[in-house]
Amino acid sequence: MPCALFAENTRVYPRAHFQDQTAESKLRPTHLLLGNVVFSERASKPDMTSTPGSLDSTAIQLDRVSRHYTLGASSIRAVDDVSLSIRSREFVALLGSSGSGKSTLLNLMAGLDRPTSGAIRADGRNLAELSSLELARYRRNTVGMVFQSFNLLPRMTLQENVELPLRLAEIDRAERATRVAEALQRVRLDKRTAHRPSELSGGEQQRTAIARALVNRPKILFADEPTGNLDSATGESILNLLAEIQSSLGMTIIMVTHERPLAEKFASRLAIMGDGKLLSDGMNNGAKQ
Q1: pLDDT digit string (tens) for 3-12?
Q2: Rounded CA gap, 213 and 175, in Å?
Q3: Pick from 35, 194, 246, 262: CA 20 to 30 A from residue 235's CA?
Q4: Interatomic CA distance for residues 226 and 247, integer angstroms
Q5: 287 neighbors 112 (Cβ within 8 angstroms)
Q6: CA-CA distance, 94 to 244, in Å (whole number)?
Q7: CB 83: neighbour CB atoms within 10 A?
Q8: CATH homologous superfamily of domain 53-283?
Q9: Helix (H), strand (E) counts: the chain
Q10: Which DSSP category does 12 fall into?
């Protein structure tokens, strides 16, 4: 049975994969190897209502990061010499057309892929130098992921879908119940816990996916086209929810989107990608407060 914790474009490869850059052209993004994913270690977490860092601290620092893929005789520069600093508690939107490199950059920051060169510093460490086991711990303890596809298990209830990451991490049952209740209340679905995905609207399914991303109490929330499968009104409600989460939890949010009007309305900062390069990066003074 496929694991709903990982979206269709998630790449989790063993360390040997990264010694052969040509492997990228042989593996489809849906390939998922779970042998190096850490689920069994217990780790203490901050309370969901806490503020994970001051506004002046740095959440992620990218120094001349590149990600190149070999396709036959060609080299594809998906990310090309990008330097970017993201402060804690920022809401950053990565904008760009299809193929601009924005999703690849997000995957690198989330620890789902490794750079060909450069450094990515997050949580006090350089992700480019971490072992596969250490990257798995970083993904489990530090980041939450929301994707365009909701990736909910259809036979599980809403409560069971949100609880799944905690079960895989072997969190105590009593603590699981508390965390699930907190996450569902935050996305305003605490009255729908027994429903299954097919009984929810698209917006409710995405809110469930957001609750699942929050249940491990991450410091950084990554969202890859979170409104891509929703109508405009529902998409705006999801962005309202993300902005509310960013404000109330003091969480850093990094969102990939091609919908510039929504980004300009909600994100505090806009970073524009094109042909693998960072074309512009600036504060968005018109964002909704």
Answers
A1: 444 444 444 3
A2: 16
A3: 194
A4: 18
A5: no
A6: 19
A7: 13
A8: P-loop containing nucleotide triphosphate hydrolases (3.40.50.300)
A9: 7, 10
A10: B
CB atoms within 10 A of CB 193: 15
Query: CA 38, 42, 44 angle in degrees (round to 5)?
Result: 125
Q: What average pLDDT does range 140-152 have in this prediction?
A: 91
Query: Given pLDDT bands bounded at 50, 70 and 90, which one contains residue 35?
Result: very low
Structure tokens at 137: 């711990």
Q: Which strand ranges, in their side-by-side order, compose the sheet holding 269-274?
A: 143-147, 220-224, 252-257, 91-95, 269-274, 277-283
- What is the C-alpha to C-alpha distance for residues 118 and 66, in angstroms, rounded to an integer? 6
Q: Where are the domains of the chain?
A: 53-283
Q: Which amino acid is at 269?
A: R
Amino acid identity at 281: D
Residue 194: HSE in the Cβ half-sphere, 13 Å Cα cutoff? 0
- Tokens 């510093």 appear where? 121
Structure tokens at 227: 């409104």
Token output for 191: 């009255």
C-alpha span between 98 and 102 (Å, rounded): 8
Say whether pLDDT at 128 is over 90.
Answer: yes
Q: What's the angle, vertex CA 211, arms to CA 49 and CA 195, rounded to 5? A: 135
Q: Which amino acid is at 153?
A: L
